[in-house]
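User: Quick sanity check before I run a bigger batch. Here is a single chain. Can you write out its predicted 3D structure?
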Amino acid sequence: MSSHITRKRFDSDTYLRMAETGILAPTDRVELIDGEILVMSPVRHRHSLAVNTANRMILKTLGDDVFLWVQSTLFLDKFVAPEPDLALLRPRNDYVTERPCAKDVLLIIEVADSSLEYDTSVKPSTYAILGIPEYLVADLSNNRLLAYSQPDGDTYRVVRELHRGESIAPMTLPQTQFPVSVFLP
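Assistant: Done. Predicted structure follows.
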């Protein structure tokens, strides 16, 4: 007997309705990637410290030059609604009425404590397809920052590894230098 398994892909509108009606609770750590609802890893102390330290530094450095989106759902595509740790968005006055979308994203930052495999395989491919110009992964286990840039199809042409003592200037904000250590407490 043969069987055929069919997966149900959810779109972002359905995903949002599931949250609004309580099917997905506010405490559920999930995100929508390629139409699938995926459970995210629990947040550990060092992860929280990295996100909050980076958040403070970015706001202090860039102020109103960016809109900082922190650990919130970002509707990037009909089937993609991740919850990145930090996203630097183009400043706009209409985020109250219009959700940010992929073209608003300058940079996405993920902090990988227990999610390194996922953050360095699924996420870069997804973000590259959507044209996200730059993606950073703070790899807490290996004390390094991975910087993905120049999206091309489902990959990034450039991947750099940086360490404490170095700094990074995001491509979309070249006048700004961030010390790598800020992402690796």
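The chain has one domain: 43-183.

User: Great, the batch can go ahead then.
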